[in-house]
Amino acid sequence: MPDRPEPAEETPHKPRKGIYVLPNLFTLAALFGGFYAIVMAMNGQFDLAAIGVFCAMVLDSLDGRVARMTNTQSAFGEQMDSLADMVSFGAAPALIAYEWSLRGLGRWGWMAAFVYCACAALRLARFNVNTTVVDKRYFQGLPSPAAAALVAGFIWLMTEAQVDTASVAWPMFAMCLFAGLTMVTNVPFYSFKDVQMRKSVPFAAIVLLAIVIAVINIHPPTVLFSLFVLYGLSGYVVYVWRRAKGLQTSVISTSTDEPDERGLHK
Predict the structure, then answer these.
(1) Using one digit for the tens of pLDDT, what is the confidence trace for 151-202?
(2) How far is Cα 35 from Cα 53, in angstroms, rounded to an integer?
(3) Residue 171: phi, psi to the nearest 5?
(4) Which of 18, 35, 169, 240 is the most exposed place for a label (fewest CB within 10 A)?
(5) Nearest-angstrom CA–CA distance, 236 and 230
(6) What gap in Å lies between CA 67 and CA 262, rounded to an integer?
């Protein structure tokens, strides 16, 4: 009998790679907050533009925690988060600041806005490549949401006070440069990542949280801007204190991959 041809081996069916909906939903909502802020600035509603940036900041702080709590981390989510951050905390604050008061400074105005935007891009790129070597308790440089809160908070506060934008153009110029350049420094800023949300806390901690919410509600622009100014200065205080004590000021952790760390400890 002639040999029967052997049946072709069936190739195993590879499952399609999907995208986790829940964490990316928060990321898209944060992206919408930044887009909304830009649109409101174009319409001259700068208070709503600032609120959009703050809403994006809250949503951005949730997407990572939701992904870790639901075990839905993915490379796609990380890239999506970085792109959304660039819009909400890089381009949006720069454009809002320019439309609000920097336009009156001519070339100096758009230069300050561009420096902020470029520093946000550089800070996000450095964060992505240094993720495995940076001490998780600290950020290397001011995080972009906090930098955006400084710029947007100043605009929100001045808008609520009905201050003439021309009179605060140069302070806005200085704020953009401070926030932008602080993002790309090696100054350590506490990240709050070692705070465990799943662990039980004393009853007093809940009472303190309620007090904080009540204080913010007194006048949100003033309180939020003041808090982020303190946070923006805290990194320099920690840096000076470490230098005075002779401690390492860099937040780069000890790693077995030494070549990647060259030039990072400063």
Answers:
(1) 999 999 999 999 999 999 999 999 999 999 999 998 999 888 766 666 666 7
(2) 9
(3) -60, -35
(4) 18
(5) 10
(6) 32
14 inside domain: no
Give pLDDT tens digits for 5-42: 555 555 555 555 556 778 789 999 999 999 999 999 99
| Closest to 265 in 3D by CA, of 133, 144, 159, 150 | 133
CATH number at residue 232: 1.20.120.1760
* Within a domain: 11: no
Retrieve residue 202's tokens. 């004393």
Q: How far apart are CA 130 and CA 200, in angstroms?
A: 32
Structural domain contains residue 77: yes
Q: Is residue 248 part of a domain?
A: yes
Structural domain total, the chain: 1
CB atoms near residue 215 (< 10 Å)? 12
Domain encompassing residue 227 = 21-261
Nearest to 66 by CA among 25, 124, 30: 25
* Residues 198, 199, 200, 202, Cα dihedral to 10°: -120
In percent, the amount of the chain with pLDDT more than 70 equals: 82
Task: Compare 213 and 56 and report the one with higher pLDDT.
Answer: 56
- pTM across the whole model: 0.83
